[in-house]
Amino acid sequence: MKLTIHIGLHKTGTTFLQRQFLGQPAQLAQQGWLFPRTGFTDHSGHAAKAEATPGHQGIVNAALSNNKGTYRRLFREIEG
User: Fold this and answer.
1) Domain contains 27
2) How high is the mean pLDDT in each 10-residue block of the chain (80 residues)?
């Protein structure tokens, strides 16, 4: 298994990539890619977008708070 992480500064295309991956799960799966939904928060169209934290912030929060439930869900999603 390979893990690819894109961590971008403001205006580096991160939100664009997230939206593309969210909209094409079947096509990604056919090519052996998984864009996990676990821990993902989509704030597209959010009124307070500047204050929003889009992406997999839920996974970061789980790491900071030692939330094992989030990790269990993520591992189940990865295992299929």
Assistant:
1) yes
2) 77 83 91 89 59 72 88 90
